[in-house]
Structure prediction request, 650 residues.
Amino acid sequence: MRIGILGYGNLGRGVESAIAQNADAELVAVFTRRAPESLKINSNAKVLNVSEIENWKDKIDVLILCGGSATDLPEQTPKYAEMFNVVDSFDTHAKIPEHFENVDKAAKKGGKIGVISVGWDPGMFSLNRMYANAILPEGNDYTFWGRGVSQGHSDAIRRIEGVLDAKQYTVPVESALEAVKACKNPSLSTREKHTRECYVVLKEGADAKKVEEEIKTMPNYFADYDTTVHFISLEELKQNHSKIPHGGFVFRCGKTGLNKEHNHIIEYNLKLDSNPEFTSSVLVAYARAAFKMFKEGQTGCKTVFDVAPAYLSPKSGEELRKTML
Amino acid sequence: MRIGILGYGNLGRGVESAIAQNADAELVAVFTRRAPESLKINSNAKVLNVSEIENWKDKIDVLILCGGSATDLPEQTPKYAEMFNVVDSFDTHAKIPEHFENVDKAAKKGGKIGVISVGWDPGMFSLNRMYANAILPEGNDYTFWGRGVSQGHSDAIRRIEGVLDAKQYTVPVESALEAVKACKNPSLSTREKHTRECYVVLKEGADAKKVEEEIKTMPNYFADYDTTVHFISLEELKQNHSKIPHGGFVFRCGKTGLNKEHNHIIEYNLKLDSNPEFTSSVLVAYARAAFKMFKEGQTGCKTVFDVAPAYLSPKSGEELRKTML
Prediction:
Protein backbone atom coordinates (compact mmCIF):
# COMPACT_ATOMS: atom_id res chain seq x y z
CA MET A 1 0.00 0.00 0.00
CA ARG A 2 1.19 3.47 -0.92
CA ILE A 3 1.09 5.84 2.02
CA GLY A 4 1.16 9.61 2.23
CA ILE A 5 1.84 11.65 5.37
CA LEU A 6 0.42 15.09 6.08
CA GLY A 7 2.46 16.88 8.73
CA TYR A 8 6.05 16.10 9.59
CA GLY A 9 6.41 16.60 13.34
CA ASN A 10 7.11 13.90 15.94
CA LEU A 11 4.15 11.87 14.72
CA GLY A 12 4.95 12.21 11.03
CA ARG A 13 8.54 11.13 11.62
CA GLY A 14 7.23 8.21 13.68
CA VAL A 15 4.96 7.12 10.83
CA GLU A 16 7.89 7.33 8.43
CA SER A 17 10.01 5.01 10.57
CA ALA A 18 7.06 2.64 11.25
CA ILE A 19 6.46 2.28 7.50
CA ALA A 20 10.08 1.13 7.14
CA GLN A 21 9.22 -1.77 9.48
CA ASN A 22 6.26 -2.95 7.37
CA ALA A 23 7.18 -4.72 4.15
CA ASP A 24 3.76 -4.20 2.58
CA ALA A 25 3.82 -0.41 3.06
CA GLU A 26 5.65 2.25 1.09
CA LEU A 27 5.92 5.94 1.92
CA VAL A 28 5.43 7.81 -1.34
CA ALA A 29 4.91 11.44 -0.29
CA VAL A 30 5.18 13.77 2.67
CA PHE A 31 2.98 16.87 2.54
CA THR A 32 3.81 19.94 4.58
CA ARG A 33 2.56 23.47 5.09
CA ARG A 34 6.17 24.61 5.23
CA ALA A 35 8.44 25.17 2.26
CA PRO A 36 9.15 21.61 1.03
CA GLU A 37 12.85 22.32 0.51
CA SER A 38 13.17 23.23 4.20
CA LEU A 39 12.23 19.69 5.22
CA LYS A 40 14.91 17.02 5.63
CA ILE A 41 13.25 13.64 5.82
CA ASN A 42 14.62 10.16 6.53
CA SER A 43 13.39 8.32 3.44
CA ASN A 44 13.20 8.62 -0.33
CA ALA A 45 9.61 9.86 -0.39
CA LYS A 46 8.77 13.08 -2.22
CA VAL A 47 8.33 16.17 -0.08
CA LEU A 48 5.59 18.46 -1.33
CA ASN A 49 3.60 21.46 -0.28
CA VAL A 50 0.12 20.55 0.87
CA SER A 51 -1.32 22.63 -1.96
CA GLU A 52 -0.32 19.85 -4.36
CA ILE A 53 -2.10 17.09 -2.47
CA GLU A 54 -5.09 16.79 -4.85
CA ASN A 55 -2.78 15.65 -7.65
CA TRP A 56 -1.93 12.58 -5.57
CA LYS A 57 -5.48 11.23 -5.33
CA ASP A 58 -4.68 8.19 -7.47
CA LYS A 59 -1.13 7.70 -6.28
CA ILE A 60 -1.82 7.23 -2.57
CA ASP A 61 -3.83 4.41 -1.00
CA VAL A 62 -3.96 5.83 2.51
CA LEU A 63 -3.16 9.32 3.81
CA ILE A 64 -2.04 9.40 7.44
CA LEU A 65 -2.87 12.71 9.09
CA CYS A 66 -0.21 13.71 11.60
CA GLY A 67 -1.51 17.10 12.72
CA GLY A 68 -2.77 18.17 16.13
CA SER A 69 -6.23 17.57 17.56
CA ALA A 70 -6.85 21.16 18.62
CA THR A 71 -7.06 22.86 15.23
CA ASP A 72 -5.55 20.68 12.45
CA LEU A 73 -7.54 17.45 12.48
CA PRO A 74 -11.09 18.82 12.95
CA GLU A 75 -10.58 20.55 9.61
CA GLN A 76 -8.17 18.22 7.80
CA THR A 77 -9.73 14.81 8.39
CA PRO A 78 -13.19 15.60 6.92
CA LYS A 79 -11.55 17.57 4.10
CA TYR A 80 -9.19 14.81 3.00
CA ALA A 81 -11.57 11.90 3.74
CA GLU A 82 -13.41 12.94 0.60
CA MET A 83 -10.30 12.34 -1.55
CA PHE A 84 -8.33 9.69 0.29
CA ASN A 85 -8.65 6.82 2.71
CA VAL A 86 -7.42 8.56 5.87
CA VAL A 87 -6.31 7.66 9.38
CA ASP A 88 -5.94 10.16 12.22
CA SER A 89 -5.12 10.19 15.93
CA PHE A 90 -7.78 12.71 17.00
CA ASP A 91 -7.65 12.59 20.80
CA THR A 92 -10.04 15.22 22.16
CA HIS A 93 -12.31 12.64 23.77
CA ALA A 94 -15.28 14.98 24.27
CA LYS A 95 -15.36 16.01 20.60
CA ILE A 96 -15.08 12.53 19.08
CA PRO A 97 -18.84 12.16 18.33
CA GLU A 98 -18.85 15.43 16.35
CA HIS A 99 -15.60 14.55 14.55
CA PHE A 100 -17.03 11.12 13.70
CA GLU A 101 -20.12 12.65 12.07
CA ASN A 102 -18.07 15.07 9.98
CA VAL A 103 -15.65 12.43 8.77
CA ASP A 104 -18.43 9.91 8.14
CA LYS A 105 -20.29 12.32 5.87
CA ALA A 106 -17.16 13.21 3.89
CA ALA A 107 -15.86 9.65 3.56
CA LYS A 108 -19.23 8.35 2.37
CA LYS A 109 -19.45 11.16 -0.16
CA GLY A 110 -16.03 10.28 -1.53
CA GLY A 111 -16.47 6.51 -1.28
CA LYS A 112 -13.54 6.28 1.11
CA ILE A 113 -12.71 4.98 4.59
CA GLY A 114 -11.75 7.33 7.43
CA VAL A 115 -10.41 5.75 10.62
CA ILE A 116 -10.31 8.25 13.48
CA SER A 117 -8.90 8.41 17.01
CA VAL A 118 -6.24 5.78 16.48
CA GLY A 119 -3.32 5.46 18.87
CA TRP A 120 -3.24 4.19 22.43
CA ASP A 121 -5.69 6.48 24.27
CA PRO A 122 -7.96 6.81 22.40
CA GLY A 123 -7.07 3.58 20.61
CA MET A 124 -5.67 0.48 22.26
CA PHE A 125 -6.84 1.61 25.71
CA SER A 126 -10.36 2.19 24.38
CA LEU A 127 -10.38 -1.26 22.80
CA ASN A 128 -9.37 -2.87 26.05
CA ARG A 129 -11.97 -0.92 28.03
CA MET A 130 -14.62 -2.02 25.55
CA TYR A 131 -13.66 -5.71 25.33
CA ALA A 132 -13.40 -5.95 29.13
CA ASN A 133 -16.79 -4.29 29.65
CA ALA A 134 -18.44 -6.62 27.16
CA ILE A 135 -16.96 -9.66 28.92
CA LEU A 136 -17.53 -8.54 32.51
CA PRO A 137 -20.73 -6.47 32.57
CA GLU A 138 -20.58 -6.04 36.36
CA GLY A 139 -17.39 -4.36 37.51
CA ASN A 140 -15.29 -1.23 37.72
CA ASP A 141 -12.93 0.39 35.22
CA TYR A 142 -9.66 2.06 36.08
CA THR A 143 -7.31 3.86 33.71
CA PHE A 144 -3.91 5.11 34.89
CA TRP A 145 -1.49 7.05 32.74
CA GLY A 146 2.27 7.16 33.08
CA ARG A 147 4.91 7.33 34.16
CA GLY A 148 5.26 9.55 31.13
CA VAL A 149 5.58 12.98 29.63
CA SER A 150 2.38 14.94 29.14
CA GLN A 151 2.92 17.40 26.29
CA GLY A 152 -0.16 19.40 27.26
CA HIS A 153 0.98 19.90 30.84
CA SER A 154 4.55 20.68 29.76
CA ASP A 155 3.18 23.31 27.38
CA ALA A 156 1.03 24.78 30.14
CA ILE A 157 4.09 25.29 32.34
CA ARG A 158 6.05 26.83 29.46
CA ARG A 159 3.38 29.50 29.08
CA ILE A 160 4.02 30.78 32.64
CA GLU A 161 6.00 34.02 32.82
CA GLY A 162 9.59 33.40 33.82
CA VAL A 163 9.73 29.83 32.50
CA LEU A 164 12.29 29.07 29.80
CA ASP A 165 11.47 25.39 29.31
CA ALA A 166 9.76 22.54 31.18
CA LYS A 167 8.82 18.87 31.14
CA GLN A 168 5.96 17.37 33.13
CA TYR A 169 5.64 13.71 34.09
CA THR A 170 2.30 12.14 34.98
CA VAL A 171 2.88 9.42 37.58
CA PRO A 172 0.35 6.82 38.78
CA VAL A 173 0.11 6.55 42.57
CA GLU A 174 1.62 3.18 43.49
CA SER A 175 -0.78 2.48 46.39
CA ALA A 176 -3.79 3.14 44.14
CA LEU A 177 -2.42 0.76 41.50
CA GLU A 178 -1.86 -1.88 44.18
CA ALA A 179 -5.40 -1.52 45.55
CA VAL A 180 -6.84 -2.01 42.07
CA LYS A 181 -4.62 -5.03 41.35
CA ALA A 182 -5.71 -6.54 44.67
CA CYS A 183 -9.32 -6.33 43.48
CA LYS A 184 -10.30 -3.93 46.26
CA ASN A 185 -12.41 -1.84 43.86
CA PRO A 186 -11.35 1.43 45.49
CA SER A 187 -13.09 4.76 44.88
CA LEU A 188 -10.28 7.04 43.81
CA SER A 189 -10.28 10.81 43.56
CA THR A 190 -8.21 12.56 40.91
CA ARG A 191 -5.57 13.31 43.54
CA GLU A 192 -5.42 9.69 44.67
CA LYS A 193 -4.74 8.32 41.19
CA HIS A 194 -1.88 10.42 39.80
CA THR A 195 0.82 12.80 40.92
CA ARG A 196 2.54 15.36 38.70
CA GLU A 197 6.31 15.92 38.58
CA CYS A 198 7.55 19.10 36.93
CA TYR A 199 11.11 19.84 35.79
CA VAL A 200 11.39 23.57 35.15
CA VAL A 201 14.13 25.80 33.73
CA LEU A 202 13.74 29.44 34.79
CA LYS A 203 14.61 32.49 32.78
CA GLU A 204 17.26 34.68 34.33
CA GLY A 205 15.87 36.74 37.19
CA ALA A 206 12.59 34.84 37.40
CA ASP A 207 10.95 34.34 40.80
CA ALA A 208 11.08 30.58 41.55
CA LYS A 209 8.61 30.76 44.39
CA LYS A 210 6.08 32.60 42.28
CA VAL A 211 6.45 30.16 39.36
CA GLU A 212 6.03 27.17 41.67
CA GLU A 213 2.91 28.70 43.19
CA GLU A 214 1.49 29.43 39.76
CA ILE A 215 2.06 25.85 38.59
CA LYS A 216 0.60 24.21 41.68
CA THR A 217 -2.58 26.28 41.63
CA MET A 218 -3.26 26.12 37.90
CA PRO A 219 -6.88 24.99 37.48
CA ASN A 220 -7.60 21.78 35.49
CA TYR A 221 -3.91 21.10 34.94
CA PHE A 222 -2.39 20.95 38.44
CA ALA A 223 -4.70 22.25 41.19
CA ASP A 224 -6.36 18.86 41.74
CA TYR A 225 -3.07 16.95 42.00
CA ASP A 226 -0.14 16.61 44.35
CA THR A 227 2.46 18.38 42.28
CA THR A 228 6.20 18.59 42.83
CA VAL A 229 8.32 21.20 41.09
CA HIS A 230 12.05 20.77 40.51
CA PHE A 231 14.06 23.71 39.19
CA ILE A 232 16.92 22.51 37.03
CA SER A 233 19.38 23.90 34.51
CA LEU A 234 18.78 23.85 30.77
CA GLU A 235 21.68 21.40 30.40
CA GLU A 236 20.09 19.00 32.86
CA LEU A 237 16.73 19.26 31.11
CA LYS A 238 18.33 18.43 27.79
CA GLN A 239 20.41 15.61 29.18
CA ASN A 240 17.86 13.85 31.39
CA HIS A 241 14.47 14.89 30.10
CA SER A 242 14.66 15.02 26.31
CA LYS A 243 12.84 11.73 25.69
CA ILE A 244 9.08 11.34 25.42
CA PRO A 245 8.23 8.07 27.12
CA HIS A 246 4.70 7.25 28.22
CA GLY A 247 2.37 4.38 28.96
CA GLY A 248 -0.26 3.40 31.45
CA PHE A 249 -2.73 0.81 32.62
CA VAL A 250 -6.32 -0.16 31.86
CA PHE A 251 -7.99 -2.40 34.42
CA ARG A 252 -11.40 -3.92 34.72
CA CYS A 253 -12.24 -5.69 37.97
CA GLY A 254 -15.41 -7.70 37.56
CA LYS A 255 -17.47 -10.32 39.32
CA THR A 256 -19.11 -13.49 38.07
CA GLY A 257 -20.97 -16.43 39.60
CA LEU A 258 -24.49 -17.02 40.85
CA ASN A 259 -23.64 -15.16 44.04
CA LYS A 260 -21.02 -12.87 42.45
CA GLU A 261 -18.48 -14.81 44.44
CA HIS A 262 -15.64 -14.78 41.88
CA ASN A 263 -13.39 -11.84 41.09
CA HIS A 264 -11.57 -11.35 37.82
CA ILE A 265 -9.03 -8.74 36.83
CA ILE A 266 -8.27 -7.86 33.23
CA GLU A 267 -5.18 -5.67 32.93
CA TYR A 268 -3.67 -4.09 29.82
CA ASN A 269 -0.54 -2.09 30.20
CA LEU A 270 1.92 -0.26 28.03
CA LYS A 271 5.49 0.86 28.70
CA LEU A 272 6.59 3.02 25.82
CA ASP A 273 10.04 4.54 25.26
CA SER A 274 8.56 6.83 22.62
CA ASN A 275 4.95 7.93 22.78
CA PRO A 276 4.82 9.30 19.20
CA GLU A 277 6.57 6.28 17.66
CA PHE A 278 4.16 3.87 19.32
CA THR A 279 1.15 5.95 18.26
CA SER A 280 2.57 6.01 14.74
CA SER A 281 2.94 2.24 14.73
CA VAL A 282 -0.74 1.91 15.60
CA LEU A 283 -1.60 4.40 12.83
CA VAL A 284 0.22 2.34 10.21
CA ALA A 285 -1.55 -0.89 11.28
CA TYR A 286 -4.92 0.90 10.94
CA ALA A 287 -3.85 2.33 7.57
CA ARG A 288 -3.56 -1.29 6.42
CA ALA A 289 -7.04 -1.96 7.82
CA ALA A 290 -8.47 1.12 6.09
CA PHE A 291 -7.09 0.04 2.74
CA LYS A 292 -8.42 -3.54 3.12
CA MET A 293 -11.88 -2.28 4.09
CA PHE A 294 -11.85 0.16 1.17
CA LYS A 295 -10.94 -2.63 -1.26
CA GLU A 296 -13.93 -4.60 0.04
CA GLY A 297 -16.19 -1.70 -0.87
CA GLN A 298 -16.77 -0.36 2.64
CA THR A 299 -17.00 3.40 3.15
CA GLY A 300 -17.51 5.90 5.96
CA CYS A 301 -15.95 6.68 9.30
CA LYS A 302 -14.65 3.90 11.53
CA THR A 303 -13.12 3.78 14.97
CA VAL A 304 -11.08 0.99 16.52
CA PHE A 305 -14.40 -0.51 17.69
CA ASP A 306 -15.54 -1.04 14.10
CA VAL A 307 -12.44 -2.68 12.69
CA ALA A 308 -12.15 -6.48 12.88
CA PRO A 309 -8.69 -7.28 14.29
CA ALA A 310 -7.57 -9.37 11.29
CA TYR A 311 -7.63 -6.26 9.05
CA LEU A 312 -4.64 -4.88 10.98
CA SER A 313 -2.34 -7.74 10.12
CA PRO A 314 -0.42 -8.39 6.90
CA LYS A 315 -1.06 -12.11 7.44
CA SER A 316 -3.97 -13.97 5.85
CA GLY A 317 -6.82 -15.34 7.94
CA GLU A 318 -5.41 -18.83 7.41
CA GLU A 319 -1.94 -17.81 8.61
CA LEU A 320 -3.40 -15.99 11.62
CA ARG A 321 -5.46 -19.00 12.69
CA LYS A 322 -2.42 -21.23 12.33
CA THR A 323 0.11 -19.04 14.13
CA MET A 324 -1.69 -16.67 16.50
CA LEU A 325 -4.95 -18.23 17.65
CA MET B 1 -31.37 -12.82 22.22
CA ARG B 2 -32.57 -16.30 23.10
CA ILE B 3 -29.74 -18.61 24.05
CA GLY B 4 -29.50 -22.38 24.25
CA ILE B 5 -26.75 -24.32 26.00
CA LEU B 6 -25.56 -27.77 24.97
CA GLY B 7 -23.74 -29.51 27.82
CA TYR B 8 -24.16 -28.64 31.48
CA GLY B 9 -20.76 -29.08 33.12
CA ASN B 10 -18.58 -26.30 34.59
CA LEU B 11 -18.74 -24.32 31.36
CA GLY B 12 -22.50 -24.74 30.86
CA ARG B 13 -23.17 -23.59 34.42
CA GLY B 14 -20.83 -20.66 33.83
CA VAL B 15 -22.75 -19.64 30.70
CA GLU B 16 -26.00 -19.86 32.65
CA SER B 17 -24.76 -17.47 35.31
CA ALA B 18 -23.15 -15.14 32.73
CA ILE B 19 -26.47 -14.85 30.89
CA ALA B 20 -28.06 -13.66 34.14
CA GLN B 21 -25.61 -10.73 34.06
CA ASN B 22 -26.59 -9.63 30.54
CA ALA B 23 -29.96 -7.91 30.27
CA ASP B 24 -30.27 -8.51 26.52
CA ALA B 25 -29.79 -12.29 26.83
CA GLU B 26 -32.21 -14.97 27.95
CA LEU B 27 -31.48 -18.63 28.54
CA VAL B 28 -34.34 -20.59 27.01
CA ALA B 29 -33.12 -24.19 26.96
CA VAL B 30 -30.39 -26.46 28.27
CA PHE B 31 -29.73 -29.60 26.22
CA THR B 32 -28.04 -32.61 27.75
CA ARG B 33 -27.10 -36.14 26.81
CA ARG B 34 -28.17 -37.22 30.29
CA ALA B 35 -31.76 -37.83 31.41
CA PRO B 36 -33.21 -34.27 31.62
CA GLU B 37 -34.92 -34.96 34.93
CA SER B 38 -31.55 -35.80 36.51
CA LEU B 39 -30.32 -32.22 35.89
CA LYS B 40 -30.88 -29.52 38.49
CA ILE B 41 -30.19 -26.14 36.93
CA ASN B 42 -30.06 -22.63 38.38
CA SER B 43 -32.55 -20.85 36.14
CA ASN B 44 -36.03 -21.26 34.70
CA ALA B 45 -34.87 -22.55 31.33
CA LYS B 46 -36.24 -25.83 29.98
CA VAL B 47 -34.03 -28.89 30.35
CA LEU B 48 -34.24 -31.24 27.38
CA ASN B 49 -32.53 -34.24 25.95
CA VAL B 50 -30.27 -33.34 23.03
CA SER B 51 -32.42 -35.55 20.76
CA GLU B 52 -35.06 -32.78 20.82
CA ILE B 53 -32.73 -30.01 19.74
CA GLU B 54 -33.94 -29.80 16.12
CA ASN B 55 -37.38 -28.70 17.32
CA TRP B 56 -35.76 -25.57 18.77
CA LYS B 57 -34.36 -24.27 15.48
CA ASP B 58 -36.67 -21.27 15.43
CA LYS B 59 -36.78 -20.68 19.17
CA ILE B 60 -33.06 -20.13 19.78
CA ASP B 61 -30.95 -17.31 18.35
CA VAL B 62 -27.56 -18.67 19.45
CA LEU B 63 -26.58 -22.11 20.71
CA ILE B 64 -23.53 -22.10 23.01
CA LEU B 65 -21.65 -25.39 22.86
CA CYS B 66 -20.18 -26.30 26.22
CA GLY B 67 -18.65 -29.68 25.45
CA GLY B 68 -15.01 -30.71 25.44
CA SER B 69 -12.47 -30.12 22.67
CA ALA B 70 -11.22 -33.70 22.50
CA THR B 71 -14.30 -35.47 21.18
CA ASP B 72 -17.47 -33.32 21.62
CA LEU B 73 -16.82 -30.12 19.71
CA PRO B 74 -15.14 -31.53 16.56
CA GLU B 75 -18.41 -33.33 15.93
CA GLN B 76 -20.99 -31.01 17.53
CA THR B 77 -19.95 -27.61 16.22
CA PRO B 78 -20.16 -28.47 12.49
CA LYS B 79 -23.33 -30.48 13.10
CA TYR B 80 -25.22 -27.70 14.88
CA ALA B 81 -23.74 -24.81 12.84
CA GLU B 82 -26.06 -25.95 10.06
CA MET B 83 -29.13 -25.35 12.24
CA PHE B 84 -28.12 -22.62 14.67
CA ASN B 85 -25.77 -19.72 15.13
CA VAL B 86 -23.20 -21.38 17.38
CA VAL B 87 -20.28 -20.39 19.60
CA ASP B 88 -17.70 -22.82 20.96
CA SER B 89 -14.49 -22.76 23.00
CA PHE B 90 -12.54 -25.29 20.92
CA ASP B 91 -9.02 -25.10 22.31
CA THR B 92 -6.89 -27.74 20.59
CA HIS B 93 -4.64 -25.15 18.94
CA ALA B 94 -3.13 -27.53 16.37
CA LYS B 95 -6.53 -28.63 15.07
CA ILE B 96 -8.11 -25.18 14.75
CA PRO B 97 -7.55 -24.89 10.95
CA GLU B 98 -9.35 -28.19 10.33
CA HIS B 99 -12.16 -27.32 12.77
CA PHE B 100 -12.54 -23.92 11.06
CA GLU B 101 -12.99 -25.52 7.64
CA ASN B 102 -15.62 -27.96 8.90
CA VAL B 103 -17.62 -25.30 10.73
CA ASP B 104 -17.31 -22.85 7.84
CA LYS B 105 -18.77 -25.33 5.36
CA ALA B 106 -21.69 -26.22 7.66
CA ALA B 107 -22.49 -22.64 8.69
CA LYS B 108 -22.49 -21.42 5.09
CA LYS B 109 -24.73 -24.30 4.08
CA GLY B 110 -27.21 -23.39 6.81
CA GLY B 111 -26.88 -19.62 6.39
CA LYS B 112 -25.63 -19.31 9.97
CA ILE B 113 -22.66 -17.92 11.90
CA GLY B 114 -20.26 -20.18 13.83
CA VAL B 115 -17.75 -18.52 16.13
CA ILE B 116 -15.06 -20.95 17.25
CA SER B 117 -12.22 -21.01 19.78
CA VAL B 118 -13.64 -18.34 22.05
CA GLY B 119 -12.38 -17.95 25.60
CA TRP B 120 -9.09 -16.60 26.86
CA ASP B 121 -6.52 -18.89 25.22
CA PRO B 122 -7.51 -19.28 22.48
CA GLY B 123 -9.53 -16.07 22.63
CA MET B 124 -8.49 -12.93 24.44
CA PHE B 125 -4.83 -13.99 24.55
CA SER B 126 -4.90 -14.67 20.79
CA LEU B 127 -6.41 -11.24 20.16
CA ASN B 128 -3.71 -9.55 22.19
CA ARG B 129 -0.94 -11.48 20.44
CA MET B 130 -2.40 -10.47 17.09
CA TYR B 131 -2.98 -6.79 17.84
CA ALA B 132 0.49 -6.47 19.38
CA ASN B 133 2.16 -8.16 16.41
CA ALA B 134 0.36 -5.91 13.95
CA ILE B 135 1.46 -2.80 15.88
CA LEU B 136 5.05 -3.86 16.59
CA PRO B 137 6.23 -5.97 13.65
CA GLU B 138 9.74 -6.33 15.09
CA GLY B 139 9.75 -7.94 18.51
CA ASN B 140 9.29 -11.03 20.61
CA ASP B 141 6.17 -12.66 22.02
CA TYR B 142 5.89 -14.27 25.43
CA THR B 143 2.89 -16.09 26.87
CA PHE B 144 2.88 -17.27 30.47
CA TRP B 145 0.05 -19.24 32.07
CA GLY B 146 -0.87 -19.29 35.74
CA ARG B 147 -0.81 -19.39 38.58
CA GLY B 148 -3.74 -21.67 37.92
CA VAL B 149 -5.19 -25.12 37.78
CA SER B 150 -4.55 -27.14 34.64
CA GLN B 151 -7.37 -29.65 34.23
CA GLY B 152 -5.39 -31.66 31.69
CA HIS B 153 -2.40 -32.06 34.00
CA SER B 154 -4.61 -32.83 37.01
CA ASP B 155 -6.35 -35.53 34.97
CA ALA B 156 -2.99 -36.98 33.89
CA ILE B 157 -1.96 -37.40 37.53
CA ARG B 158 -5.31 -38.99 38.42
CA ARG B 159 -4.72 -41.69 35.82
CA ILE B 160 -1.58 -42.90 37.65
CA GLU B 161 -2.01 -46.12 39.64
CA GLY B 162 -2.31 -45.46 43.35
CA VAL B 163 -3.66 -41.89 42.96
CA LEU B 164 -7.09 -41.15 44.45
CA ASP B 165 -7.31 -37.49 43.44
CA ALA B 166 -5.02 -34.63 42.42
CA LYS B 167 -4.79 -30.95 41.46
CA GLN B 168 -1.98 -29.44 39.42
CA TYR B 169 -1.02 -25.75 39.37
CA THR B 170 0.92 -24.22 36.52
CA VAL B 171 3.14 -21.42 37.87
CA PRO B 172 5.09 -18.84 35.86
CA VAL B 173 8.75 -18.49 36.90
CA GLU B 174 9.04 -15.08 38.56
CA SER B 175 12.56 -14.37 37.29
CA ALA B 176 11.49 -15.10 33.70
CA LEU B 177 8.51 -12.74 34.05
CA GLU B 178 10.80 -10.05 35.44
CA ALA B 179 13.29 -10.44 32.58
CA VAL B 180 10.49 -10.04 30.03
CA LYS B 181 9.04 -7.00 31.81
CA ALA B 182 12.51 -5.44 31.88
CA CYS B 183 12.61 -5.74 28.09
CA LYS B 184 15.59 -8.09 28.16
CA ASN B 185 14.08 -10.25 25.40
CA PRO B 186 15.30 -13.48 27.02
CA SER B 187 15.39 -16.84 25.24
CA LEU B 188 13.45 -19.09 27.57
CA SER B 189 13.28 -22.88 27.55
CA THR B 190 10.10 -24.65 28.63
CA ARG B 191 11.69 -25.33 32.02
CA GLU B 192 12.63 -21.67 32.47
CA LYS B 193 9.10 -20.37 31.91
CA HIS B 194 6.86 -22.45 34.17
CA THR B 195 7.03 -24.78 37.15
CA ARG B 196 4.40 -27.37 38.04
CA GLU B 197 3.02 -27.89 41.57
CA CYS B 198 1.08 -31.07 42.24
CA TYR B 199 -1.18 -31.82 45.21
CA VAL B 200 -1.83 -35.54 45.31
CA VAL B 201 -4.06 -37.77 47.45
CA LEU B 202 -2.87 -41.39 47.50
CA LYS B 203 -5.01 -44.49 47.70
CA GLU B 204 -4.42 -46.62 50.76
CA GLY B 205 -1.24 -48.63 50.47
CA ALA B 206 0.05 -46.75 47.40
CA ASP B 207 3.81 -46.20 47.02
CA ALA B 208 4.40 -42.43 47.31
CA LYS B 209 7.92 -42.58 45.97
CA LYS B 210 6.82 -44.50 42.89
CA VAL B 211 3.92 -42.12 42.22
CA GLU B 212 6.17 -39.08 42.55
CA GLU B 213 8.70 -40.61 40.16
CA GLU B 214 5.97 -41.43 37.67
CA ILE B 215 4.62 -37.86 37.74
CA LYS B 216 8.00 -36.18 37.39
CA THR B 217 9.08 -38.29 34.43
CA MET B 218 5.78 -38.23 32.53
CA PRO B 219 6.60 -37.14 28.96
CA ASN B 220 4.92 -33.98 27.54
CA TYR B 221 3.13 -33.27 30.82
CA PHE B 222 5.92 -33.02 33.43
CA ALA B 223 9.30 -34.30 32.21
CA ASP B 224 10.33 -30.91 30.77
CA TYR B 225 9.44 -28.94 33.93
CA ASP B 226 10.64 -28.53 37.47
CA THR B 227 7.84 -30.30 39.25
CA THR B 228 7.11 -30.47 42.97
CA VAL B 229 4.78 -33.09 44.41
CA HIS B 230 2.95 -32.63 47.71
CA PHE B 231 1.08 -35.57 49.21
CA ILE B 232 -1.96 -34.39 51.14
CA SER B 233 -5.15 -35.80 52.62
CA LEU B 234 -8.46 -35.83 50.79
CA GLU B 235 -9.84 -33.35 53.33
CA GLU B 236 -7.01 -30.93 52.65
CA LEU B 237 -7.50 -31.26 48.89
CA LYS B 238 -11.19 -30.49 49.25
CA GLN B 239 -10.62 -27.61 51.63
CA ASN B 240 -7.71 -25.83 49.96
CA HIS B 241 -7.75 -26.93 46.34
CA SER B 242 -11.38 -27.13 45.23
CA LYS B 243 -11.39 -23.88 43.24
CA ILE B 244 -10.36 -23.52 39.62
CA PRO B 245 -8.54 -20.22 39.32
CA HIS B 246 -6.32 -19.43 36.35
CA GLY B 247 -4.86 -16.59 34.37
CA GLY B 248 -1.64 -15.57 32.71
CA PHE B 249 0.26 -12.99 30.73
CA VAL B 250 0.75 -12.09 27.08
CA PHE B 251 3.70 -9.83 26.33
CA ARG B 252 5.10 -8.33 23.19
CA CYS B 253 8.43 -6.53 23.47
CA GLY B 254 9.10 -4.57 20.31
CA LYS B 255 11.42 -1.95 18.90
CA THR B 256 10.75 1.18 16.88
CA GLY B 257 12.77 4.10 15.57
CA LEU B 258 15.14 4.67 12.69
CA ASN B 259 17.87 2.88 14.61
CA LYS B 260 15.53 0.60 16.59
CA GLU B 261 16.50 2.63 19.62
CA HIS B 262 13.14 2.60 21.40
CA ASN B 263 11.67 -0.34 23.33
CA HIS B 264 7.99 -0.86 23.93
CA ILE B 265 6.23 -3.46 26.04
CA ILE B 266 2.59 -4.39 25.56
CA GLU B 267 1.29 -6.55 28.40
CA TYR B 268 -2.12 -8.16 28.79
CA ASN B 269 -2.80 -10.11 31.91
CA LEU B 270 -5.66 -11.96 33.53
CA LYS B 271 -6.20 -13.02 37.13
CA LEU B 272 -9.28 -15.22 37.24
CA ASP B 273 -10.95 -16.70 40.32
CA SER B 274 -12.89 -19.06 38.09
CA ASN B 275 -11.51 -20.20 34.75
CA PRO B 276 -14.82 -21.66 33.45
CA GLU B 277 -16.89 -18.64 34.51
CA PHE B 278 -14.54 -16.23 32.75
CA THR B 279 -14.49 -18.38 29.61
CA SER B 280 -18.29 -18.50 29.76
CA SER B 281 -18.47 -14.72 30.02
CA VAL B 282 -16.42 -14.43 26.84
CA LEU B 283 -18.68 -16.98 25.14
CA VAL B 284 -21.80 -14.94 25.93
CA ALA B 285 -20.24 -11.73 24.55
CA TYR B 286 -19.38 -13.57 21.32
CA ALA B 287 -22.90 -15.05 21.21
CA ARG B 288 -24.14 -11.46 21.01
CA ALA B 289 -21.65 -10.81 18.20
CA ALA B 290 -22.74 -13.95 16.33
CA PHE B 291 -26.38 -12.90 16.45
CA LYS B 292 -25.61 -9.35 15.27
CA MET B 293 -23.51 -10.64 12.37
CA PHE B 294 -26.23 -13.15 11.44
CA LYS B 295 -28.85 -10.38 11.42
CA GLU B 296 -26.63 -8.44 9.02
CA GLY B 297 -26.70 -11.39 6.65
CA GLN B 298 -23.19 -12.66 7.33
CA THR B 299 -22.58 -16.42 7.34
CA GLY B 300 -19.73 -18.87 7.88
CA CYS B 301 -17.10 -19.55 10.49
CA LYS B 302 -15.49 -16.69 12.41
CA THR B 303 -12.76 -16.49 15.02
CA VAL B 304 -12.04 -13.62 17.41
CA PHE B 305 -9.83 -12.15 14.65
CA ASP B 306 -12.83 -11.73 12.35
CA VAL B 307 -15.24 -10.07 14.76
CA ALA B 308 -15.20 -6.26 15.02
CA PRO B 309 -15.08 -5.38 18.74
CA ALA B 310 -18.31 -3.35 18.72
CA TYR B 311 -20.34 -6.49 17.97
CA LEU B 312 -19.53 -7.79 21.46
CA SER B 313 -21.17 -4.91 23.28
CA PRO B 314 -24.85 -4.31 23.98
CA LYS B 315 -24.19 -0.57 23.49
CA SER B 316 -24.72 1.20 20.17
CA GLY B 317 -21.80 2.58 18.16
CA GLU B 318 -22.81 6.06 19.25
CA GLU B 319 -22.85 5.13 22.95
CA LEU B 320 -19.51 3.35 22.63
CA ARG B 321 -17.85 6.35 21.00
CA LYS B 322 -19.23 8.62 23.69
CA THR B 323 -18.37 6.51 26.73
CA MET B 324 -15.50 4.16 25.90
CA LEU B 325 -13.35 5.72 23.18
In short: The two ends of chain A are 26 Å apart (CA to CA).
